[in-house]
Design goal:
The protein is an alpha+beta fold. The chain contains 5 helices and 17 strands.
Amino acid sequence: MSGSTLAGRRIQRMNGAGNKILVLDLRGAPGAPSAEEARAIHRAPGLDYDQMMTLSTPRTPGTAAYVRIYNNDGSLAGACGNGTRCVADRLSRELRVTSLAVETEAGVIACERVGSASYRVDMGPPRLGWRDIPLAHAVEDTRRVDLAWAPGDPLAALGPAATANMGNPHAAFFVPDLADVDAAGSGARIEVHPTFPEKVNVTFAHIDAPDAATAVVWERGVGLTLACGSAACATVVSGVRLGLLARRAVVRLPGGELLIEWRESDDRVQMTGPVEFEGEFVLDDAIFEAAA
């Protein structure tokens, strides 16, 4: 893959509540990274990531950039709340504004700085119909989706999945004790369950209080991650729908805490959390030659 047009480009390493994020600014340049290029960057020393956010020239008036979201296996995601906060940090400092909007596959996302390194992003309304999540077949209640594990399968003990779409499809399981959950083994199997035609992000959550939960997330196309913003949103939405959580709750993830509010007034989900800038790198052509 020598001669990549990405060679020589600067890329910024950040994290959002521990979620490993790269921000690659391609505004003004044609095209977008290929899946192979995205995988090559992930394998480069010091550049491993959960999501890579690439900025392109805005498509919609009033937005600062069009953002493509790559998982580290080269697949595209519809939304990444932690990555969007990182993008908002870079753009707000460049443009010297405290609020802006970016566009992703999931739609236009409003972002606002609420602290020196803290941002709130509007993740939009959850999609809760079985076709919108999507599920492979109609179900009566998307709060309780029976995955019909074979008799004796240990995953049957998890019970039904609480499903929702927050830009990505999500399945949440509320458990008595996270220490008893094999998040990696179970998450990998649930991600590819035939009920989810586009695969699914899997969250295992424990209710700590009416306004707090602790969660571990297996992201489709990524694996276990220190944080996942859209999963935190889906956790609160599902918790509210099941009568387990308040509409404003903290979700504690291995990498940090996110404040989620599912507003009753307009059905939109707001996520607030930290960002951290870790450094800037230049993409060397050798990164892409090694993957050829």
